[in-house]
Design goal:
By secondary structure, the chain is mostly helical. The chain is built from 90 helices and 4 strands. Helix 19 runs antiparallel to helix 21.
């Protein structure tokens, strides 16, 4: 429950909420150290002051009020004001319930009404309870919380017994506060409340009002009431233990406990009376004087010292009467307690007598009272104090379960031994005298009278035995301090000697009657080393004496071969053999006392063996004693059954170490205790004829314990019994399984819990056998014969569990029965039922884990039919209510708080079983079959997740760890089931609606809209508690927290579960942003903490992606605020924000574990063995299986014989395991760091991708990117970083630079400044900021280049990322114009647009460009060599492509770079050109309909792009030409593979990944033509060599050229037009006849026909293109205009040679001339349309800011449907700018084509009109004009007419208008052409 601010108080004044909040606040202040409390101390004081009266009137409710009752009755019609809900109208049922509760508990009606409202809100936490019943439940829970808060306050008070780790001022205030409460009568109120608040009374009240809850909650309610009573008693105990009790309280408590103490079912004190009597003992305790160094000062705080009259009053109360009063029955009720108080007070007075003088001055007036100590102790001994202590207090486990109970009884006994040693000796003397008298009577054959003195000493020894039998605090060591030379305490010197003297009594002469008690006490006091040292001495009572006597007893029994031969069952008489003296000969008669002494001796030997391994080995290896064989021999003899059982238990202790287990196994096999045959010496006969008759089974239980101990100590002996029978453990498995376990449920038992004892031990043994077994094919018996060696025990068990067998039936029915018993109250067999339940779950879980290996082994052995499969059998509906056992496992989780280990095993079993999809589906169907069952099971999972670990730790040892394991198991189960397709059990447990699509589910808080509490709520609460403020500076995450974050990510990452979950998380106060802000120090954090943080970052990445996609502005803003805002107010938002801090402290290197020097193992072989034990992990790494390594090395150890060498090997094996563990830790850390960085990378990249500009503007974005890049590159040491982190980091650098480039583009697009001015504005408003940013960019570039240098060839992924990052950086430096950028003024020519290298650079080079060039040049030729080698190397194709692109951009940025020389001189350029020819076959394969790969095509394009860029400079073009690039292209056969144009050329569409064949061929052809175009541009069309090579290239692929030129027309597909544009450009620019004439001696002179063919086809295209394609809004006519321009230029170049070309050529030129005139008219019309469209866009742009959404939708259409107004306006501006740029370019191309048409028309007109004039009569020769005139015929006349009709004034003005934006030279040239045309028209002679 969350803690509200206590300053505000609670808003609900009911009978539960204030107390729960009080308990939570008290706990938060008292459990947090230093400054970790959530609120100030004065706030805590105000809370406690507000509740002071509540404590003083403990468990008293606010009284009923008639006015309030009438008011709530009126609320049915008029309504009523409630603090929690406001004004509301009440229902009649609600009012009736409130009145009933008010009458039940005499409580105020409004408080009851509020309680009912709270119950309504809490109904989701306790499903199945009606509102009224839940209110009753909350009422008792509130009382418990109130008393718990009070007890914690009492315990926090400073005192003499303990102290808490809380803040000093808190403890000081609590001490004053509690002292005031005590002085105001708190403890009297507690005793009154304890008397009133009785379980029977409360249950009777509930029964009368029909308010008893169902059985499940009935147990919890009873537990709550009992817990409240225990807490009340605990308040009194804590007050007494810390500060003692005042006189009145002490006397009242003493009188009440002497009259009627409450007792348990066994007659001993129950927990309440025990706590109160322990409070009495602490109130009468002054042991602090010798227990602590500051004991004198602490003792002054106690009432025994402070109250001068208290001792006298107590003496009057406790002093024995001079004469016993007859007729009183106080012997049973008060004598024992009075004796106990007498002993305690007497010891306190004795301690006070020995106190310093300064303390005695305080009690000086009553000094004579201190001499009454011995009188009190004598009275206590005579009153049977030790008998009472033994029977009423120590006979249960309550003392051992409470630390300070055990400490007090320990101090009571040790103080008696030390301070009253004389009384102890008197007791011993009296006991010995009584024992001798008893012996004398027995010698005379008489019955001895009861020896009172003897029973007193035996009672003391029994107290010692019972107190230290369970000693988790190791208090028994106080008796052995004198033996410990390391302990130096001047106070404890004499005390230690006295205590050791008491222990040493066993070494002196002791009478036989006291021997069993002494031995049992010594067994309880056994400690390592010292006990064995005491027993090893050859005293009268030593180990030698005990074991020799045992051996002698065995020898005497064997001397009588058949003492009971006349009896039918002589071997099974057991204990009856010594009952009657006449039953055996006198020489072998063993009395019962001797049997008890032997049992006690065996207990002592077992205790020493348990505590001391060296002693255990000494006992087993001593050949003189031969203890093991002697004990097994006694088991086979005619001895009492109890002695046989004790022998087996002792043997279990002796065989419990690896060094002795083999010896005990061998002796066990030699003894033949277990036999398959009907042997009368066997244990099965003992079982049937003795134990079953007596209905008690101690020997069977002991033998099972022996087997369990032997199997746990060492590996199972596979060769046991070799030579006499088939080796193995089959006889023992047969006995344990068939004779003991399977028959156990059907045997009679005098004590019912013994059945569960037998089952618990049996199942524990079976679970151990299964745990030690791994299936192999050799275990299956061969067909048709008996096996030579019996398989391991686990094989037989496993085979029966996977088939329909009695063992499986027993396991499943036991599971059901044990679960049913868990719902009942505590019974004597409860602990054994729990153990059985846990073991059965272990057995089933292990069997499911081994099912797959067993099937594999069975198939390998050919015995697959033997295995059915437990995963199928467990689904049989044979459980309670016809459910399967998986339902039972789910129900076990409901007991997670009281049975944490069982819950953990049940979850593990479910995880195993539900790995099968069919099992998962079956379980979901079974759960959903009944609504009540589904609610119960879901709540069971929730309860398991919400179980308090500290409470589980109090229930059982290790309970906290088991509770955490159960929680982790539930989360792992959800993770396991979550990936399955909906609907699954995980979706049900997480609260999704399974009746519909789960993505449409709506998740609510528990209780809201009737929503149940689900595992999702529990997981979120676990995570909330993790990030809640605590006392420690940093809270380390557990694996549970890590798993919860992982589950949260899994939910957020899956499309089906993500939308409802993310909506719920946002509604929960933006859960993910709050958690991502809780940063941790990654340098000191544990791997679990780092992994938790990693999963949280991944979940935030999912949230960012979903919020960005769904346009959840608020969610994205919350996440951005959490990640990108600095917690410091004076810092900028992006300075040291969370996203940067999350990276800063991340370690990126992990030190390798140094391999130790191996002394015995071969290093290479050991490394290989360890490598073979590698297992994959979930995060993609590997870990070494420590168990496999241990098993492997243990097998090597088993082959050794020499014991000395074995010890050395054992040490070396442990060294290996430690090394492997450290390696796993380092691997886990490395994998965790990589995973964390990957998560941070995902979040960072997604954040910059989805964050809109209104949340993260460009300025903040670029600053954040630059800082993250700088941090990242500064953090990553390229040569030392983890490879996985290096791959991810390089990718992050790439993505961040892409985003930085995007920022550059965005800000440039929004700015109307020039590029030079833009750089200044982008990198800062001042020169200083610009310099800082430039330095950052310089650092980034330097780091990237340095990383490229040190990254090896093997790390291709890193290389690719780094080249990509470098490419983006260079593109930032060399940013290209975007279609959406603002238009820039400038006069450019068409040629300059064709070839950017012709544009002259600005006078000032860009600062960024200069910086980049300087940094690149600083690396010298080394960097160039690496990049060039990557361009042509044998690395990955992607690496080659990006390296080529980088080189391309570098050449573009700095055309004068020295890299060209490196490329040429080192042969890299030649290799690059030669590789084109090598790619020919691959390119041809890429043109197949279904290519294997397109990588070669993409690499080819990259190569050609680089060559084109190099060709942009004259030096580069000449080098490329000289290196034979065009020759290589001419020889490439792929250029001849043009697809057929007439078979659906334009209809083939690109698939998702593979372009069509036509597009692939175009990607080959167009770059080749572009290279030719670039060479012509750079070298000029007059360069004969270049033109010849290009012509040779065209002629080499004449078929392709012919196909393109023949098929093209204006309506052709766009792809074909692109090819035609590139081809016509090359042909037109290389068509100078002068070049061909000068090349007459070349090989081209034989290709005249081919050239003529190309010329004819080109001229034939012009008439075809004189009519443009239809105009459409989306049609881009630039390709058409470029083709027309190329054709016109070609016609212009060939026009002068038309006569020489023959009649066909002349005809072609005439058609071209006529087409030019038509084109000129068409182009002018199209220009007019383009001008109108451009003006429209220019008119729309300024009005965007005032457009409405409807206006913008008209412009953008459906694209605007989901956009916000800001985004819509930005999209409109972007669209209009792009549209304006496209239309401007179309207009320019149209004008250029019109000018070309005018030039061709001018040339055509000049040729025909001037040539058509009258010739000179004297000129008789046939000249070229005459020839043209003769061939033209009537054409000149027609041409003149056409020109006259076209070239009017308007037409001329339109032509001149096309050059208005051109330079003056261009405009003047156009005017000259028009003037000349007009002149020719006007003065033509025709």
């Amino acid at each position: 429950m969350s803690i509200k601010n206590p300053v505000q108080g609670t808003t609900t004044e009911d009978l539960w909420t204030p107390y729960r909040e009080l308990a939570a606040v008290v706990e938060s202040y008292l459990t947090n150290e230093s400054s970790g409390a959530p609120y100030a101390v004065h706030t805590f004081e105000s809370v406690l002051r507000r509740h002071k009266q509540t404590f003083l009137s403990l468990l008293k409710n606010p009284a009923k009020n008639p006015v309030s009752r009438e008011e709530i009755k009126r609320g049915i019609t008029e309504g009523v004001n409630l603090p929690s809900v406001g004004r509301t109208v009440l229902s009649k049922e609600l009012v009736d319930e409130a009145i009933i509760i008010s009458d039940m508990y005499n409580a105020n009606e409004f408080a009851c009404l509020e309680l009912l409202h709270t119950a309504q809100r809490q109904s989701a936490r306790r499903p199945g309870l009606a509102r009224g019943l839940l209110a009753v439940f909350l009422y008792y829970d509130g009382r418990r919380a109130l008393v718990q808060a009070l007890r914690e306050l009492i315990m926090a008070r400073d005192g003499v017994s303990w102290s808490i780790n809380a803040r000093e001022e808190v403890v000081s205030y609590v001490s004053r506060y509690v002292g005031q409460l005590v002085s105001d009568g708190l403890l009297a109120g507690v005793l009154d409340a304890l008397r009133r608040f009785d379980l029977d009374t409360e249950l009777d009240l509930l029964r009368r009002n029909r308010a008893l809850p169902p059985r499940k909650y009935h147990v919890k309610l009873v537990s709550t009431i009992q817990s409240t009573r225990k807490l009340l008693a605990g308040v009194v105990f804590a007050a007494s233990a810390q500060r003692g009790l005042e006189r009145d309280t002490l006397l009242r408590l003493l009188s009440e406990q002497m009259i009627a103490p409450s007792k348990g079912p066994t007659g001993a004190l129950d927990e309440i009376s025990l706590a109160l009597q322990m409070a009495l003992l602490y109130a009468l305790d002054l042991s602090v004087l010798h227990r602590r160094e500051d004991g004198e000062e602490l003792a002054k705080k106690l009432p025994l010292i402070q109250d001068p009259d208290l001792i006298s009053v107590l003496l009057d109360q406790l002093s024995p009467p001079p004469q016993p009063i007859q007729g009183q029955e106080d012997n049973k009720n008060s004598a024992g307690l009075k004796a106990l108080c007498q002993l305690s007070l007497g010891l306190a007075l004795a301690a006070l007598k020995r106190a310093p003088v300064s303390l005695l001055r305080r009690t000086e007036p009553k000094t004579e009272l201190l001499d009454q100590d011995e009188m009190l102790v004598d009275a206590a001994i005579d009153g049977g104090v030790f008998e009472y202590l033994d029977e009423a207090i120590l006979s249960t486990d309550l003392v051992a379960s409470e630390e300070y109970y055990q400490r007090r009884v320990h101090s009571l006994i040790t103080d008696f031994i030390v301070l009253m040693h004389s009384k102890l000796m008197e007791m011993r003397v009296k006991a010995e005298e009584a024992a001798r008298s008893a012996q004398m009577y027995m010698a005379e054959g008489l019955n001895a009278p009861g020896g009172v003195a003897r029973s007193r000493l035996e009672a003391l020894l029994r107290c010692v035995e019972r107190l230290y039998a369970r000693d988790p605090l190791q208090l028994r060591r106080d008796y052995w301090v004198a033996c410990d030379t390391t302990a130096h305490n001047y106070r404890a010197g004499g005390r230690a000697a006295t205590l050791y003297k008491f222990v040493r009594l066993s070494g002196e002469v002791v009478v036989a009657a006291l021997l069993p008690a002494y031995l049992r006490a010594l067994a309880a006091l056994a400690v390592p080393k010292h006990t064995w040292a005491l027993l090893a001495r050859r005293d009268a009572l030593s180990a030698h004496h005990l074991l020799t006597a045992l051996s002698l007893y065995h020898r005497n029994l064997r001397a009588d071969p058949a003492p009971f031969s006349d009896h039918l069952h002589s071997s099974s008489l057991g204990a009856s053999a010594i009952v009657t003296p006449a039953a055996r000969p006198g020489r072998l008669l063993v009395r019962q006392e001797e049997v008890e002494a032997m049992i006690a001796a065996l207990k002592l030997i077992a205790a020493v063996a348990h505590e001391d391994d060296a002693a255990c080995v000494s006992i087993c290896e001593n050949l003189q004693w031969d203890a093991v064989n002697c004990m097994f021999g006694l088991v086979c003899c005619h001895v009492p059954l109890q002695l046989k059982a004790e022998l087996c238990i002792t043997l279990a202790a002796l065989g419990g170490t690896p060094g002795t287990a083999a010896r005990v196994w061998a002796a066990l096999e030699a003894a033949q205790l277990v036999s398959v045959a009907k042997d009368k010496r066997a244990l099965n006969v003992e079982l049937q004829e003795v134990e079953c008759r007596a209905e008690e089974y101690p020997l069977s239980r002991a033998f099972l314990t022996l087997l369990d101990s032997l199997c746990a100590a060492a590996p199972l002996p596979r060769t046991l019994g070799a030579g006499t029978r088939p080796p193995g453990l089959d006889p023992y498995v047969e006995h344990a399984l068939n004779r003991l376990a399977l028959a156990a449920p059907h045997r009679p038992y005098s004590r019912p819990h013994e059945k569960w004892q037998v089952l618990a031990i049996s199942f524990r043994l079976f679970a151990r056998w299964l745990e030690q077994y791994e299936p192999t094919a050799s275990d299956f018996p061969p067909a048709g014969r008996e096996p030579d060696v019996n398989p391991p025990p686990g094989f037989r068990l496993l085979l029966q569990l996977h088939s329909q067998s009695e063992f499986l039936r027993l396991t499943l029915t036991t599971l059901d029965e044990a679960h049913e018993l868990m719902d009942r109250h505590t019974a004597p067999e409860h602990i054994y039922v729990q153990q059985t339940l846990i073991s059965s779950l272990k057995i089933l879980e292990r069997a499911l884990a081994l099912e797959r290996p067993l099937n594999v082994a069975a198939a390998e052995a050919g015995r697959g039919a033997l295995v059915v499969g437990l995963s199928k059998l467990i689904l049989a509906p044979e459980g309670p209510d016809d459910t399967d056992r998986l339902i039972t496992c789910c129900k076990v989780l409901e007991h997670g708080a009281v049975l944490p280990e069982a819950a953990a095993k049940a979850v593990a079993l479910l995880c195993r079983a539900l790995q099968s999809p069919s099992c998962a589906r079956h379980l979901l169907a079974s759960v959903l079959h009944r609504h009540e069952l589904s609610v119960e099971i879901r709540h069971g999972f929730v309860e398991c997740l919400e179980a308090e670990e500290w409470a589980a730790g109090e229930v059982s040892p290790g309970g906290a760890e088991h509770a955490r394991a159960a929680k982790e198991g539930v989360v792992l189960l959800l993770l396991q089931l979550l990936p399955t397709a909906p609907h699954s059990l995980a979706h049900f447990l997480l609260g999704y609606n399974l009746n519909d699509d789960i993505s449409k589910s709506v998740l609510h808080e528990a209780g809201s809209a009737g929503a149940p509490r689900t595992c999702f709520h529990s997981v979120l609460d676990i995570l909330e508690s993790f990030i809640a403020p605590s006392g420690s500076t940093q809270k380390e995450a557990t694996t549970l927290v890590e798993s919860c974050y992982r589950l949260l990510y899994g939910i957020c990452a899956r499309p089906a579960t993500s939308p409802p979950a993310l909506r719920f998380l946002r509604a929960r106060d933006y859960f993910l942003p709050r958690h991502v802000k809780a940063t941790v120090n990654l340098e000191t954090a544990t791997p679990a903490t780092i992994s938790s943080r990693s999963w949280a970052l991944r979940a935030c990445a999912c949230e960012a992606g979903a919020a960005g996609a769904g346009r959840h502005h608020a969610a994205l803003q919350a996440l951005l605020t959490a990640l990108t805002h600095s917690p410091q107010r004076n810092a900028q938002a992006w300075e040291w924000c969370v996203i940067r801090r999350s990276l800063e402290s991340l370690p990126v290197t992990v030190e390798a574990v140094p391999e130790p020097r191996w002394e015995l193992f071969h290093a290479h072989q050991l490394r290989q063995a360890i490598a073979d034990c590698d297992l994959p992990t979930g995060l993609g790494g590997k870990r070494i299986s420590v168990s496999r390594v241990n098993a492997l090395l243990s097998r090597e150890l088993a082959s050794l014989r020499a014991s000395t060498q074995r010890e050395l090997v054992v040490i070396e094996i442990q060294k290996v395991l430690d090394y492997v563990t450290e390696v796993n830790k380092q691997r886990n850390l490395a994998a965790t760091l990589s995973h964390y960085y990957d998560s941070w990378r995902q979040l960072t990249e997604i954040l910059f991708c989805v964050a809109p500009q209104d949340l993260l503007n460009v300025e903040s974005r670029k600053s954040l990117i630059l800082n993250i890049l700088q941090d990242l590159l500064n953090k990553i040491p390229p040569a030392e970083v983890l490879p996985q982190v290096g791959n991810l980091a390089s990718g992050t650098v790439l993505l961040l630079l892409v985003n930085l480039r995007h920022c550059y583009i965005l800000q440039k697009r929004e700015s109307s400044l020039k590029s030079a001015e833009f750089e200044t504005s982008f990198f800062g408003p001042s020169n200083q900021i610009m310099q800082t940013k430039s330095l950052t960019l310089k650092f980034i570039l330097h780091k990237i280049l340095s990383w490229i240098l040190v990254s090896g060839v093997s790390t291709q992924k890193i290389r690719v990322n780094l080249y990509g990052a470098l490419l983006n950086f260079l593109n930032i430096v060399n940013l290209k114009q975007s279609p959406a950028d603002p238009e820039e003024d400038g006069n450019t020519t068409y040629v300059s647009r064709l070839d950017s290298s012709k544009t002259r650079p600005s006078r000032e080079e860009s600062n960024l460009k200069s910086m980049a060039i300087d940094v690149i040049n600083s690396f010298g030729d080394n960097l160039c060599s690496i990049v060039c080698s990557d361009c042509i190397g044998g690395g990955h194709d992607v690496c080659r492509m990006v390296a080529l692109s980088c080189l391309d951009t570098l050449v573009e940025i700095n055309p004068s770079t020295d890299w060209m020389n490196t490329l040429t001189n080192q042969g890299n350029l030649r290799s690059l050109i030669d590789s084109l020819l090598q790619d020919d076959e691959g390119l041809k394969e890429a043109l197949e309909p279904k290519p294997k790969s397109l990588r070669v095509l993409y690499v080819y394009e990259s190569k050609m792009a680089l060559l084109i860029k190099i060709a942009g400079t004259r030096l580069g073009a000449e080098t490329i030409l000289a290196q034979g690039a065009l020759s290589c292209l001419a020889n490439m056969r792929v250029l001849d593979c043009h697809p057929d144009i007439h078979t659906g050329y334009g209809q083939h569409q690109d698939t998702e990944f593979v372009p069509s064949v036509a597009n692939r061929f175009r990607d080959v052809l167009v770059p080749a033509l572009a290279l030719c175009d670039a060479l012509l541009t750079t070298l000029g069309a007059d360069n004969h060599s270049c033109v010849l090579h290009i012509t040779h290239l065209l002629l080499s692929h004449l078929e392709c050229v012919d196909m393109v030129l023949r098929a093209a027309h204006p309506s052709s597909p766009a792809g074909l037009l692109l090819e035609l544009e590139a081809l016509s450009s090359v042909v037109a620019r290389s068509s100078h006849r002068d070049v061909f004439c000068s090349a007459a001696d070349t090989a081209l002179q034989h290709s005249a026909a081919g050239m003529q063919r190309i010329q004819y086809l080109m001229l034939a295209l012009l008439p075809r293109f004189q009519q443009p394609p239809p105009e459409t809004p989306d049609h881009d006519a630039r390709i058409y205009y470029k083709i027309v321009w190329n054709l016109l230029m070609f016609a212009r170049n060939t026009l002068a040679d038309a006569g020489a070309a023959g009649a066909a050529g002349a005809e072609g030129t005439r058609r071209a001339g006529r087409a030019a005139l038509i084109l000129l008219q068409v182009l002018l019309r199209r220009r007019h349309a383009h001008v109108k469209l451009l003006d429209t866009v220019h008119h729309q742009l300024p009005k965007v800011h005032s457009m409405t959404l409807s206006d913008m939708k008209k412009l953008l259409g459906e694209e605007l449907s989901a956009a916000s107004p800001v985004e819509a306006r930005a999209s409109v501006v972007h669209t209009l700018r792009a549209r304006a740029r496209a239309r401007r370019l179309q207009l320019q191309c149209c004008e250029q084509a019109a000018h070309a048409a005018l030039q061709l028309l001018w040339a055509h007109t000049r040729l025909h009109l001037r040539a058509a004039g009258p010739g000179d009569a004297a000129d008789t020769a046939i000249t070229r004009p005459a020839a043209i005139r003769g061939a033209a015929g009537d054409e000149p006349t027609e041409l003149r007419k056409e020109l006259l009709s076209v070239f009017n004034e308007r037409f001329v003005d339109e032509l001149l208008d096309t050059a208005k934006n051109q330079p003056p030279i261009q405009r003047g040239f156009l005017e000259v052409l028009l003037k000349d045309i007009k002149t020719m028209i006007q003065f033509s002679p025709l």
